[in-house]
Every structure is written in C-alpha cells, then in structure tokens.
Design goal:
224 residues; 2 domains; 3-stranded antiparallel beta sheet
C-alpha cells in the first residue's frame, strides 16, 4: 500500500499509532496494548504535544478507523483473554525502524528540529548524529510513493528548520509556529512554578533554622 492510498488521519488516529510504536519499542513486554493501556498513552501528560483528554469510546473509534487501511491489527496476546492492539505502520509504508521512530516522535510531540528529534527519540532508536536524522527525514520527504514529512520554514532566531509529519494532511506553517510557541510557554511556566516552589522551600528552611538557633541560645543562656 502506498502513502497516497492512505486516508488523511485525524490527530487522535496519529496519536494512537504513535503510542503503539512508542510502547512497542520501550516496553515490549506489554505490547500489543490493551485498550486501557492505549487510552493512558494517548492521555499521557509528559512527552505529548498537544496534550489530549480523550475517552475510551473515542480511542475505540480511532482504532476501528485505522483497521480499514490495515494500520491496526487485533491481537489477544499471550493470555488469549483480553483484546490487544498492534500497529502495522512499517509494513504499510515500507519503513525501517529509524524512520518509524522519527515518524512516531513527530506524531507524539509535533514539529521538531533534527536535534530535538535525535534527543526525543533516543529510547526508540539511537541515531549516530544529527546528520543521520536529517538523512532519514530527507528520505521520507522525497519518497516516490508520497512524502511523509515536510521541512517547515525557520522560525525567527532559530538556527534549525523544524520538521512535521504529513499523515494528517498539509501543515500550516503559522499553526505549527503557534503550537511551538505554546509548547515553549508551557515549559517556561512549568520551570517558573518549580523555581517559585524551590524559593518557598528555602524560605521555610531558613525560618526553621532561625527558630532552632533562637531556641539553642535560650537553652544555653547565651545572650545575643
């Protein structure tokens, strides 16, 4: 099956495939995934952009839609009791593990630079250097069967181009830029909150230490 034969996937459908790829490579003992495990992976707060809050029914609908182009397979696993789900992306799109890992990283975390992709996909596939990441991206962007990724215009002040997947259709540069800004703002807000919490903790520690010193002075009868 060629890329042109694939339907345009919804954001949730790409999230489902991305989660299945991620869990297959990072926790193979629990793969294929149950519906509950897949739901948890889709709603995961860390290493996801955008963060989603979807229901079991919505994930089931996405799975059913992905079965039609053979991107998802049913499996009962070793137990033979609980329905589990596996992806079939590499076979459908004729991809190796490196390209599959990059595509999964883009599906899970949105547009990224080659440097970000190399770091973010390390648990899925270990790339020798950024040049090897760029080579795989270029190969996926120039497939005769249809491009899977695209290079986005550079953002102001950025030294690297970001890349985005095309499984959900063409990517608007402005929308991708806005998503990246929101993602950076979320990180900055989180870092600021953590810093404030650390400062508050230090202040509490200093207050307790002062109280302890005062008590020691009184017990020893030492005038200050």
């Amino acid at each position: 099956m060629t890329t042109s034969a694939l339907p345009t996937l919804s954001p949730l459908e790409t999230r489902v495939i991305g989660v299945l790829i991620e869990k297959q490579l990072t926790t193979p003992d629990y793969y294929p995934l149950t519906l509950n495990a897949l739901l948890a992976g889709c709603n995961q707060k860390s290493n996801r952009h955008p963060v989603m809050s979807v229901t079991e029914g919505e994930v089931q609908m996405a799975l059913d839609a992905l079965k039609r182009p053979s991107l998802i397979m049913d499996s009962y696993g070793a137990s033979g009791r609980v329905m589990r789900y596996a992806h079939n992306l590499p076979k459908v799109l004729d991809l190796g593990q490196a390209a599959t890992a990059l595509l999964a990283a883009l599906m899970l975390r949105g547009p990224q630079t080659p440097g970000e992709l190399r770091t973010g996909s390390e648990r899925l596939y270990r790339f020798a250097d950024i040049s090897s990441v760029e080579a795989y991206l270029d190969e996926m962007a120039n497939r005769s069967a249809g491009a899977l990724v695209t290079k986005l215009p550079k953002q102001p002040g950025s030294r690297e181009h970001r890349w985005a997947h095309l499984l959900s259709g063409p990517v608007e540069a402005d929308a991708a830029s806005s998503a990246s800004i929101h993602q950076e703002e979320a990180v900055t807000t989180g870092e600021l909150a953590a810093l404030k919490a650390n400062v508050a903790q230090v202040q509490d520690d200093v207050t307790e230490l002062r109280a302890l010193v005062e008590r020691l002075y009184k017990e020893l009868g030492v005038a200050r």
